[in-house]
């Protein structure tokens, strides 16, 4: 294709060449991606190994390109091809690249000029604009890059910067949260639908939503129809990114109009107005391109040897369990990840990020763990990300388990898998766990001693595994609906069905299961660290025993809004527990307890108790743990709070427990007792009734008791001794 030279007037505003009928000029290498400039678009793409590159332009939805513009040799700077193109209809434009280079898989090169490649930095991706709309499987370029206009009105919104110790996190799937027809929203399964449920979230009391992946992915990846049932299975969870800068169009009511960016930004703005932060679950450990048999979408065709970890024979290391592993500690890939997160923090006002299979991020190009992984260090110290929460899933599919040992640089928090496992086992009455339970309950100082309790994101359930209801209803997983012979999903669930597998009409078993649900919530929401709830657990949502519902876009995995009324007792209990946590700083300290009276209150900041006060039982047969937190030490003694006593009895018999004595004038009040029927199971903070006996309390079988001793009463008595 010939290149015409055009007389130069102002090189920064006018074309210097014509290619395929378009005026063009050499572009700026940075930033990567497609950027609007006066009169045109600056296209910049990296490929260190390509010999040549073409820009391929489409009208929106058109099957064939309207033009293809090769980058002249002089439009390349180092490994970056950059060109400004003038006269484009930005709103009707889709674009991609064609990279020319060697195809030598053994040496890591997989260039294929027959493929049109998506821009890794594209801010919008078309092709899956409406969730579940069957695509054209013959389309040569299915995921097309598009531009987004930076004209959203944030109306003064800024990230909330809620202190980590004050967070109550709520993990939710954007589509599943409102897709059920009984959700009652105007646009089910969308960002807009989720926004309609903000009043529900506020009533619940959570102040942070952690959204499962919202970066563009293809729900039809590995899609299939189950024989016999006819149900179509999807890539429902979305842990297979194909557009890291692009919000999922299929999650937007306006996705068919290309307005998904504005709809997601509107959701973030509305959540912030409600005092709720937004954390995104991000997947940088692998991409949607899979192994050597997977599709060529973007990275593979641009520079396979740079973007992926490759074996000496050119195959893909698979530490993600999905076919490939992103080469995160290569300098170019590291910059890509940093640029991406800066973009979401600045352009979408995101408050933090949870990193899927984050242990992969500290592997070198051969997969070995690094002592000082540059990506994790860069993320920890990046100036743009300074105020963002960084949360690691500190393990991967290759066997690297780093809970408590994740390279943290004083910044990273972790999903505490050891907390999950210990609480589950203690709840069902496993022996020899009292000491472990106490450690996990108070912030896992053995794991996070140098980082503080806020490094521990505590959870009993998450999207991956049983729901809380199923945890107390099933001994075994039931994943038959996945079509994989029940072989998928974890087998070590530490669950207990309480005598019957699945649903039951037995009133005693149903009552015990409800009590166990309350026990789990009471423990989680009074634990030191950052609590995380799974959406739907507060109303006993079920997946019918499926602990790996990654492929189900159906009632099986959707939030059932009828349960809000049906299980109102549990919901009311959870709301009360969240409110109690917010009301008491002593439950939310950023640091660890010292076990001493460093503030001169007459009480240790944390003390342990057994059936007799001040005498904890750490023996293998003990199934009872009680703690007393003195609010005079809350947040270093600068905030005065009440005394909070929590007793957890996982024994099948009731225990008569001696209570620690409060200061003169203070009396124990009962916030929660899961052995009691509603509404006496929990009370609104500030309305707790006095305990009938101030010296002892009967803790029911398999139950949790939370008492509060108001310091104000003790202080008033001290100030007025004549009273």
TrEMBL record:
Gene3D superfamilies: Glycosidases (3.20.20.80), Golgi alpha-mannosidase II (2.60.40.1180), Immunoglobulins (2.60.40.10). One of its GO terms (biological process) is glycogen catabolic process. CDD domains: AmyAc_Glg_debranch, E_set_GDE_N. Signal peptide: none annotated. InterPro entries: GH, GH13_cat_dom, Glyco_hydro_13_N, Glyco_hydro_b, Glycogen_debranch_GlgX, Ig-like_fold, Ig_E-set, ISOA1-3-like_C. SUPFAM superfamilies: (Trans)glycosidases, E set domains, Glycosyl hydrolase domain. Transmembrane segments: none annotated. Keywords: Glycosidase, Hydrolase, Transit peptide. The keyword Transit peptide applies. One of its GO terms (molecular function) is amylo-alpha-1,6-glucosidase activity. Residues 478-490 have a biased composition (Basic and acidic residues). This is Glycogen operon protein.
């Amino acid at each position: 294709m010939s290149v015409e030279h055009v007389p130069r007037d102002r090189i920064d505003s006018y074309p210097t060449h014509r290619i395929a009928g378009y005026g063009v000029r050499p572009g700026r290498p940075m930033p990567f991606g497609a950027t609007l400039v006066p009169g045109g678009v600056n296209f910049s793409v990296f490929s260190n190994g390509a010999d040549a590159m073409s820009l391929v332009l489409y009208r929106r939805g058109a099957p064939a390109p309207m033009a293809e513009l090769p980058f002249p040799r002089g439009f390349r700077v180092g490994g970056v091809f950059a060109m400004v193109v003038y006269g484009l209809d930005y709103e009707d434009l889709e674009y991609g690249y064609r990279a020319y280079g060697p195809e030598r898989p053994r040496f890591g090169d997989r260039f294929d000029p027959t493929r049109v490649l998506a821009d890794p930095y594209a801010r919008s991706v078309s092709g899956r604009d409406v969730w579940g709309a069957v695509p054209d499987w013959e389309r040569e370029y299915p995921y097309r890059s598009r531009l987004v206009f930076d004209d959203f009105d944030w109306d003064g919104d800024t990230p909330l910067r809620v202190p980590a110790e004050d967070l109550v996190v709520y993990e939710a799937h954007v589509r599943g949260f409102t897709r059920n027809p009984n959700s009652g929203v105007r646009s089910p399964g969308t960002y807009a639908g989720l926004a309609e449920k903000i009043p529900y979230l506020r009533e619940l009391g959570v102040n942070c939503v952690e959204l499962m992946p919202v970066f563009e992915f293809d729900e039809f990846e590995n899609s299939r129809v189950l024989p016999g049932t006819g149900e179509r299975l999807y890539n429902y969870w979305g842990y297979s990114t194909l557009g890291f800068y692009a919000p999922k169009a299929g999650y937007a009511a306006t996705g068919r109009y290309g307005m998904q960016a504005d709809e997601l930004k509107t959701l973030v703005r509305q959540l912030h107005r409600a005092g709720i932060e937004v954390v995104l679950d991000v997947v940088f450990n692998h991409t949607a391109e899979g192994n050597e048999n997977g599709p060529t979408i973007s990275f593979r065709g641009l520079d396979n040897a740079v973007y992926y970890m490759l074996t000496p024979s050119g195959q893909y290391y698979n530490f993600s369990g999905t076919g490939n592993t992103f080469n995160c500690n290569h300098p170019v890939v590291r910059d890509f990840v940093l640029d991406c997160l800066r973009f979401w923090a600045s352009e979408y006002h995101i408050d933090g990020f949870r990193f899927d299979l984050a242990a992969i991020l500290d592997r070198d190009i051969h997969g070995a763990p690094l002592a000082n992984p540059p990506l994790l260090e860069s993320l920890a110290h990046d100036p743009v990300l300074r105020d963002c929460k960084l949360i690691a899933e500190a393990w991967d599919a290759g066997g690297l388990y780093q809970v408590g040992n994740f390279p943290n640089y004083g910044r990273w928090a972790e999903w505490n898998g050891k907390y999950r496992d210990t609480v589950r086992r203690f709840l069902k009455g496993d022996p020899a766990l009292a000491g472990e339970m106490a450690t996990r309950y108070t912030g896992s100082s053995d794991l996070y001693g140098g980082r503080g309790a806020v490094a521990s994101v505590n959870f009993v359930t998450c999207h991956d595994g049983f729901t809380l209801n199923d945890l107390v209803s099933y001994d075994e997983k039931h994943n038959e609906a996945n079509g994989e012979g029940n072989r998928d999903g974890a087998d070590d669930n530490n669950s207990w069905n309480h005598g019957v597998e699945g649903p039951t009409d037995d009133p005693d078993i149903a009552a015990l299961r409800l009590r166990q649900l309350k026990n789990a919530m009471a423990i989680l929401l009074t634990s030191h660290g950052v609590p995380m709830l799974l959406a739907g657990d507060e109303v006993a949502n079920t997946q019918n025993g499926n602990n790996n519902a990654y492929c189900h876009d159906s009632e099986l995995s959707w939030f059932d809004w009828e349960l809000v009324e049906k299980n109102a007792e549990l919901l009311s209990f959870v709301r009360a527990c969240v409110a109690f946590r917010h009301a008491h700083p002593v439950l939310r300290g950023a640091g660890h307890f010292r076990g001493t009276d460093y503030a001169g209150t007459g009480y240790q900041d944390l003390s342990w108790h057994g059936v007799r006060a001040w005498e904890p039982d750490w023996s293998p047969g003990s199934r009872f743990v009680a703690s007393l937190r003195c609010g005079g030490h809350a947040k270093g003694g600068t905030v005065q709070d009440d005394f909070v006593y929590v007793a957890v009895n996982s024994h099948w018999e009731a225990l008569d427990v001696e209570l620690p004595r409060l200061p003169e004038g203070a009396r124990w009040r009962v916030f929660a007792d899961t052995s009691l029927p509603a509404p006496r199971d929990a009370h609104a903070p500030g309305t707790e009734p006095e305990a009938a006996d101030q010296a002892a309390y009967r803790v029911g079988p398999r139950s949790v008791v939370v008492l509060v001793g108001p310091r104000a009463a003790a202080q008033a008595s001290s100030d007025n001794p004549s009273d």
